[in-house]
Specification:
Radius of gyration: 12 Å
Helix content: 10-25%
Shape: elongated
Largest sheet: 2 strands, antiparallel
Strand order of the largest sheet: 1-2
Number of helices: 1
Number of domains: 1
Order of helices and strands: EEH
Length: 43
């Protein structure tokens, strides 16, 4: 988690996950608003 202000899109922070299984394609990164993670964990 990066707890910082990333502007209007991610004001409370950002969670970045790397998808390491993509066959011969490039790596994928998933960006999730930290508030979504907090809500899912009941924090």
């Amino acid at each position: 988690m990066i707890a910082d202000d990333f502007g209007a899109i991610y004001p409370g922070g950002l969670f970045v996950a790397q998808d390491g299984d993509n066959g011969n394609g490039t790596q994928n990164f998933k960006l999730v608003d930290w508030a979504t993670i907090e809500a899912a964990l009941g924090l």
